[in-house]
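Bench log, entry 3. Co-assembly request; chain sequences pasted below exactly as received.
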Amino acid sequence: MEIKTASRLALLPPYLFAELDRLKKEVASKGVDVISLSIGDPDLPTPRHIVETLKRAADEPKNHRYPDYEGLPQFREASADWYRRRFGVSFDYQREVCALIGSKEGIANFATAVVDPGDIVLIPDPGYPVYYSGCVFNGGEPYFLPLRKENAFLPDLGSIPAEIARRAKVLWLNYPNNPTAATVDLSFFQDAVKFSLKHDVILAHDSAYSEIAYDGYRSPSVFQTDGSRECAIEFHSLSKTFSMTGWRVGFAIGNAKLIGALGKVKTNMDSGVFQAVQEAAITGLAGGDGDKLAEYCAIYKERRDLLVKALRALGLECENPRATFYVWTKVPRVYTSVSFTERVLKEAGIAITPGSGFGKGGEGYVRFSLTSERLVEAVDRLKALRL
Ligand SMILES: *Cc1c(COP(=O)(O)O)cnc(C)c1O
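Structure output for the full assembly:
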């Protein structure tokens, strides 16, 4: 028979990186030991006390069974407590918090919970690809909000046409931002909440990088603004904060109706987070002895300083990020995102990510990631590059 897959799969953007993957193999086959600065996945290990809790919890037969769909009450309570200590805002963990199998899962399923066919979804460009796939998989129409340097990589909400705002269902934001590493002050969130309330648009904030910050910067939460509880949901992840990308755990917090709708989708699509992982996550959220966050941020900061200095010495224009572990870098005029990425791969043996992989708005940029223990070596190779 001829297998015909769902037409929604054809809505995904073409895979940009096939040629780059081929080139990476070719470079490696010539004996070059390629250094990857292309993925946002911490090389630093999950703190010991979290791993130890998992080991103990994995031994418990009660944890071998199906978990509660919405997360252990203790996990949700620990999430709400962590959130309150960090942002000074209280939530009822029973109605306003939902456990996630990583925030990517929550972001994707949230679209199913709120997007109807024909609804417009406001999506930052460049941006994390799941906002787009969640939108189009549910019949939504993406409307891209360009993140430009002239506007500090913030969307210009005032420039959204009235007709688009009227039809919009969800506004996605992500600060600290991937891939641009831009950060915001609370006043930006206050403006976004005003926009949401004025146009009846759900505000969905992806807060995956809230704790990866430098130079004393403390990223705000949407819920530190007036009116936010009426319209918003925020997605938190343990992946970057506790170097737990492989563990798959995060939580959503916010408006009870939005949390309930997400929970309803999840109940029908998945069966929750392994309880032993939830117990380990509680250890992380509780903080205390063994917490590596400050130490890890200091390591990323040192790498950032080294890389930013080297890139600028090469004459490249880049941001000096206050948060995230990315350095968003403008490519010289004669290149595209992809051609510059190829040049760096061929001549320096370093894999980076072309900005165009995050949407049209990322063209003209590349993203360097700081999550490699070989960053010093990578910087030495970059220094030898003749652009
Ligand atoms: C890493 C990342 C996530 C979080 O992923 P998890 O599924 O929690 O591991 C979410 N949003 C952005 C922008 C990210 O970069």
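Residues 40, 102-104, 128, 174, 178, 206, 208, 237, 239-240, 245, 250 surround pyridoxal-5'-phosphate (CB under 6 Å). The chain has a mean pLDDT of 96.
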